[in-house]
Amino acid sequence: MAQQANLQAATRSGTGKGAARSLRRQGKVPGVIYGHNRAAEAVAIDTAALNKMLVGISAATTVLDVVVDGRPAVKALIREIQRDSVRPAHILHLDLYEVRADEKVTLSVPVHLVGIPEGVRNSGGVLDHSLRELEIEVLPADIPEHVELDVTALTIGHSLFVRDIKIDKAEILNEPDTPVCTVVAPRTEEAPAVVEEAAAPTEPELIRKPKPDEDEAETKA
Predict the structure, then answer these.
(1) What is the largest CA-CA distance in the chain?
(2) What does the alpha-carbon distance between residue 96 and residue 78 come to, in Å, rounded to a whole number?
(3) What's the pTM value of the predicted model, to 2 decimals?
(4) From the CB of residue 123, how many other CB atoms can be counted at a distance below 10 Å?
């Protein structure tokens, strides 16, 4: 069952970078809510309340009850959280996508690997987790927080694929033959190359043609 949370928001009239900076100085995060054939609506969310809500939930898979200006709540998913590249904890903008209970949505859910593979435990292999998210289509109420995949029986050289995963009430959109994880053989350390001791350098032999007067001197000698 999907996680649920509540979020209060207020409409905002100012747009652009200047208005957004002003909102942040007031302790609010600028955002927008759109989707389901509604016009995009600019909103502002209290920063402290937003940070508190995000603790302990999976932001991408949690259905929010969003109340804007006291109007009836609408259900929405977080589509994007823009963060400051220098201060990741500082949220710059929030995108919310309205959903309906009877209409399927497409989203990504994280894949969690469970257990220690036999190839790692008994043969010193390494578990390579290559696909960390699955794209699925599902009704909002049936969104899983994450997907678990048991890797205990995996031996060296063997993989688990998307086709090995089943999610109740959801359709997996990834290609079935896409590998999710593989146990690879341990890396063997290469023996250091033997460097032959170089022979001591010899003085180069000087070869030059004797001058005529030197020839005559040698003859007389």
Answers:
(1) 124
(2) 5
(3) 0.74
(4) 14
The span from the CA of 46 to the CA of 69, in Å, is 13
Question: Distance between CA 10 and CA 42 in Å, rounded?
Answer: 9
Give the tokens for residue 206: 């000087």
Question: Residue 83 forms beta bridges with which residues?
Answer: 91
Residue 52 CB-half CA count within 13 A: 8
Token readout for 95 is 């995108």
The per-residue pLDDT for 209 is 47
Determine the pLDDT at residue 194. 57
Q: Which domains does the chain have, with CATH numbers?
A: 3-100 (2.40.240.10), 106-184 (2.170.120.20)
Please name the residue that has the structure tokens 């969104």.
143
Q: Map residue 97 onto helix, strand or coil.
A: strand
